[in-house]
Amino acid sequence: ASSSASSLRELLEDTGRTNPEEQLEAYDLRLQLRKAIARVLDPYECRVMELLYALDGGGKRLAPDVASSLGYTQERVRQIEVNSLRKLRSFRQLRPLLASHLEGSP
Predict the structure, then answer these.
(1) Predicted model pTM
(2) Gap between the Cα atoms of 20 and 11, Å rounded
(3) Between 20-40 and 43-52, two packed helices, what is the crossing angle to 10 degrees?
Protein backbone atom coordinates (compact mmCIF):
# COMPACT_ATOMS: atom_id res chain seq x y z
CA ALA A 1 0.00 0.00 0.00
CA SER A 2 2.83 2.41 0.79
CA SER A 3 4.35 1.69 -2.63
CA SER A 4 1.21 2.79 -4.45
CA ALA A 5 0.84 5.80 -2.14
CA SER A 6 4.36 6.98 -2.93
CA SER A 7 3.76 6.42 -6.66
CA LEU A 8 0.60 8.49 -6.45
CA ARG A 9 2.45 11.23 -4.56
CA GLU A 10 5.18 11.28 -7.24
CA LEU A 11 2.52 11.44 -9.95
CA LEU A 12 0.72 14.35 -8.29
CA GLU A 13 3.88 16.31 -7.57
CA ASP A 14 4.84 18.02 -10.78
CA THR A 15 7.96 20.05 -10.11
CA GLY A 16 8.09 21.26 -13.71
CA ARG A 17 4.94 23.34 -13.39
CA THR A 18 4.88 26.89 -12.19
CA ASN A 19 2.42 27.92 -9.56
CA PRO A 20 -1.10 28.95 -10.65
CA GLU A 21 -0.37 32.65 -10.12
CA GLU A 22 2.62 32.50 -12.50
CA GLN A 23 0.56 30.59 -15.04
CA LEU A 24 -2.17 33.24 -14.88
CA GLU A 25 0.37 36.06 -15.27
CA ALA A 26 1.91 34.34 -18.30
CA TYR A 27 -1.53 33.81 -19.83
CA ASP A 28 -2.47 37.45 -19.24
CA LEU A 29 0.79 38.65 -20.80
CA ARG A 30 0.26 36.45 -23.89
CA LEU A 31 -3.29 37.80 -24.19
CA GLN A 32 -2.08 41.42 -23.98
CA LEU A 33 0.60 40.72 -26.58
CA ARG A 34 -1.86 39.10 -28.95
CA LYS A 35 -4.26 42.05 -28.67
CA ALA A 36 -1.47 44.57 -29.25
CA ILE A 37 -0.07 42.66 -32.19
CA ALA A 38 -3.54 42.34 -33.75
CA ARG A 39 -3.74 46.15 -33.90
CA VAL A 40 -0.57 46.30 -36.01
CA LEU A 41 -0.44 43.14 -38.11
CA ASP A 42 -2.73 41.51 -40.64
CA PRO A 43 -4.46 38.29 -39.46
CA TYR A 44 -2.10 35.98 -41.39
CA GLU A 45 0.92 37.82 -39.97
CA CYS A 46 -0.52 37.50 -36.47
CA ARG A 47 -0.92 33.75 -36.85
CA VAL A 48 2.63 33.25 -38.09
CA MET A 49 4.05 35.31 -35.22
CA GLU A 50 1.85 33.56 -32.65
CA LEU A 51 3.20 30.20 -33.73
CA LEU A 52 6.83 31.24 -34.10
CA TYR A 53 6.95 33.02 -30.73
CA ALA A 54 4.59 30.85 -28.65
CA LEU A 55 1.97 33.56 -28.23
CA ASP A 56 -0.77 30.96 -28.69
CA GLY A 57 0.19 29.27 -25.43
CA GLY A 58 1.96 26.38 -27.11
CA GLY A 59 5.68 25.99 -27.48
CA LYS A 60 7.76 27.95 -29.93
CA ARG A 61 7.74 26.37 -33.37
CA LEU A 62 10.34 26.36 -36.06
CA ALA A 63 9.68 27.96 -39.43
CA PRO A 64 9.37 24.60 -41.25
CA ASP A 65 6.68 23.49 -38.79
CA VAL A 66 4.79 26.78 -39.12
CA ALA A 67 5.05 26.63 -42.91
CA SER A 68 3.72 23.10 -42.97
CA SER A 69 0.81 23.78 -40.62
CA LEU A 70 -0.28 26.93 -42.49
CA GLY A 71 0.38 25.73 -46.03
CA TYR A 72 3.15 28.28 -46.72
CA THR A 73 6.69 27.76 -47.89
CA GLN A 74 9.49 28.22 -45.37
CA GLU A 75 10.66 31.25 -47.35
CA ARG A 76 7.20 32.81 -47.13
CA VAL A 77 7.14 32.30 -43.35
CA ARG A 78 10.55 33.97 -43.12
CA GLN A 79 9.33 36.91 -45.24
CA ILE A 80 6.21 37.30 -43.10
CA GLU A 81 8.32 37.21 -39.93
CA VAL A 82 10.77 39.85 -41.20
CA ASN A 83 7.96 42.13 -42.38
CA SER A 84 6.02 41.65 -39.14
CA LEU A 85 9.04 42.41 -36.98
CA ARG A 86 9.62 45.58 -38.97
CA LYS A 87 6.03 46.68 -38.33
CA LEU A 88 6.20 45.75 -34.65
CA ARG A 89 9.44 47.66 -34.05
CA SER A 90 7.62 50.88 -34.89
CA PHE A 91 4.87 50.15 -32.35
CA ARG A 92 6.46 51.53 -29.18
CA GLN A 93 3.71 50.45 -26.79
CA LEU A 94 4.54 46.84 -27.59
CA ARG A 95 8.16 46.95 -26.42
CA PRO A 96 7.55 46.49 -22.67
CA LEU A 97 5.17 43.60 -23.33
CA LEU A 98 7.63 41.87 -25.65
CA ALA A 99 10.46 42.33 -23.16
CA SER A 100 8.36 40.74 -20.41
CA HIS A 101 7.34 37.83 -22.63
CA LEU A 102 10.91 37.15 -23.73
CA GLU A 103 12.19 37.27 -20.14
CA GLY A 104 9.74 34.54 -19.21
CA SER A 105 10.61 32.32 -22.18
CA PRO A 106 13.05 29.45 -21.82
Answers:
(1) 0.65
(2) 18
(3) 150
